[in-house]
Amino acid sequence: MTNSIAVDENNGIYVASNSVMHKLVWTGTSLSDQESDGAWASPYDRSLVTPPIISFSNGTGATPTLMGFGDGADKLVVITDGAPQMKLVAFWRDNIPDGFVQKPGTASRRIAGQIPVTCGFTTLPEWIQSEQSVVVNRNGAFVVNNIPETVDPEILGKNKILQVTLMGPAYSTSYGVERFQWNSSTHDWSSVWARSDVSSTSMIPVYSESDNMALINGYREPHGWEVLGLDWDTGEIVHQTILGKDNFGNGAYGILQYLDNDDLLFNSIVGPIRIHYGN
Questions:
Q1: Which domain holds residue 55?
Q2: What is the pLDDT of residues 168-221, one digit of tens each?
Q3: Could you tell me if residue 237 is inside a domain?
Q4: How far apart (Å, rounded) are the C-alpha atoms in residues 77 and 66?
Q5: pLDDT tens track for 105-146
Q6: Which residues neighbour 246 within 8 Å (Cβ) at sequence distance 6 or greater?
Q7: Exposure of 12 by Cβ count < 10 A (0-12 exposed, 13-18 middle, 19+ buried)?
Q8: Which terminus of the chain has fewer Cβ atoms in its 10 Å neighbourhood, N or C?
Q9: How far apart are CA 183 and CA 203, in angstroms?
Q10: How far apart are CA 77 and CA 266, in angstroms?
Q11: Number of domains in the chain
Q12: How open is the CA angle 22-253-205, to the nearest 5 degrees?
C-alpha cells in the first residue's frame, strides 16, 4: 500500500494495495473483510514492473475516490490502475446490481467499468501513469499523467523526492491530462476532453466548484512552474498563476488548496506559500 484510504458514510473503508482493491467494514466493534458484513476484494490490472519515475509501486498510484451519492446514482469507488498505460477504473462500492454482466477485459465482476487513459497523445508513450487521486465532480472524473515521455538514465533508480525535485528545471517533466464522464444509464465511461500540452508534475489536482475548473501544478516553458485552471467542460485554460523557474514553484506530492478569500495556499517543496490575488 502506497496511498491513503477513503471512508464512506456507512463505515465502508476503501484500501488499494498494489494488486487488489479492498472494501473493509467497521462493524462497531471490529474491522471486517467478510462479505456478510458488506466487505469485498477485487483484483485490477497492473504492470509487472514499477514505473521508472515518480511511482512507488507497480500498482495504482491513486488513493480511492468515492463517486455517486443520492437516490438513483451509481455508487462507485474509482482509481487509476497499474497498467503501463493506465485505465480509469470504477468499482461497485455496495451491492453489484442484479443482472450486471462482467464487462470484457475487466479483472472481476466487481468492476463497473474501465477506460484507457490516453491524455490526447497521438502516439502513446510507454508509460501513462499517475501518483494522484482521481478528481471527481458528480459523475465527472479528471486524471493526470505524472510520467515523462523520456526519463534520463541519470535519475533512474534515484530517490523519488529527488526525482520530483529535478523534473522540470533539470530533466524532462510529464505532460497530459484527461477528463471523463460516467453514464449511469449505460454504466460506461466516455472521454470528454484531453490535453497533451499541459503539465502536472506530481502535485495533487483539485476541482474548483465556484469556477468550474480543474487545477494542476506543473513546469512548462517559457514561464516555468505554474498553476493552471482548466475549464471542466471544455479543457480550455481559464486560469494561470506563474510561479517562475525557481523550485519553490514545485508542489511535489502536496495538495493544491484555496482559502475562503480565494488566496492560494501553495504547499511547495520548500514549505507553504500563500498567494493573494487582486488588491
A1: 6-197
A2: 989 999 999 999 999 999 999 999 999 999 999 999 999 999 999 999 999 999
A3: no
A4: 4
A5: 999 999 999 999 999 999 999 999 999 999 999 999 999 999
A6: 224, 225
A7: buried
A8: C
A9: 28
A10: 28
A11: 1
A12: 80
